[in-house]
Specification:
mainly beta; 3 helices; 7% helix; globular; disordered C terminus
């Protein structure tokens, strides 16, 4: 197993440390951090390749390590399930706008999922995964399986000491554009000092 450690940090983010075999007995050390972005309906995954340790069997810093992420997406409320045959399989491919650095998925006019990588690249390659088990929902009497849509995959290449991030944000008609700062609080907007 490549996973060396997992931790929930005090700031609410989650951290995974991996030692990944890179061939010829060498290891690459990767840190993955998942965090929610305050004030936005967004999350970020940060990938950092740590530098090779001196006098170790670590993979050379100048040789890139390729990280591939394939997002699986749905458009549903918490206890409903996506069923590809009920319309999404025919329609969701047309709801994706591809970009070199990610994609936008707009299954309805009032909302859009925006996914961006920096630095990195997105490759369109749509596919479905069917009947993904949700045993906890099944145990509560809800439908126990859902179908997942993936519009493609993200590729990140990291040399030792380099980082990249993937940001996913839900944008609604009333919500911010991807990458925009959180709206100011009433105190910030008026320049008043907030007392706690």
């Amino acid at each position: 197993d490549c996973l060396k450690s997992f931790a929930a940090r005090p700031d609410g983010s989650l951290e995974w440390q991996f030692e990944v075999p890179a061939g010829q007995g060498k290891l690459a050390h990767l840190q993955i951090v998942f965090r929610m972005i305050q004030g936005r309906n967004a999350v970020r995954i940060e990938a950092h390749r740590q530098r090779a340790r001196p006098d170790s069997e670590d993979f050379d810093d100048s040789s890139p390590v390729k990280v591939i992420l394939r997002p699986d997406i749905e458009d549903r409320t918490n206890h409903s399930k996506t069923k590809a045959y009920a319309g999404p399989e025919a329609n969701w491919g047309r709801a994706v706008a591809y970009r070199p650095d990610g994609f936008d998925f707009a299954p309805a006019p009032d909302r859009r999922l925006s996914v961006r990588v920096a630095p990195g690249a997105f490759t369109p390659e749509p596919e479905w995964v069917y009947m993904v088990s949700h045993p906890h929902d099944a145990g509560r009497g809800f439908d126990g399986a859902s179908d997942l849509f993936s519009p493609g995959f993200i590729t990140i290449e990291l040399n030792g000491g380099q980082s990249a991030s993937v940001t996913a944000e839900i944008v609604t008609e009333a919500g911010p554009r991807p990458g925009s700062p959180a709206p100011p609080t009433p105190a910030q907007a008026t320049g008043e000092r907030a007392e706690i």
